[in-house]
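Re: the 107-residue chain
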Amino acid sequence: VGTNTKDMLEAIRTLTKINGGISVVENGRNLFSLPLPLAGFMSFEVTKQLSFEIEVLYKNLSKIGCKNEKILLVISALSDVNIPKIRITRNGLFDVESGKFVETVIL
């Protein structure tokens, strides 16, 4: 989820380095990253530590203007291939209705 190409590119770079997760970027600078190395949405962290990190994540999201209190649910739904239409997967954009990957071009 992002508002400009520069920040999204930095988020992609950060997520590549941490093997998946969530990255909060503002003005090209990574403010906070939550590593989620298990399929990009699960953690090895113990619950108490992960809970603290999620609090920090939401504070940073709020700092950049995100008001959605359920943003983690929204983000996780983006990759759920059981919901119709196009989903973001580890292998690219997937058209659920046709059962095929969508050809993409990265500029």
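The helical segments are 5-17, 47-63, 71-78.
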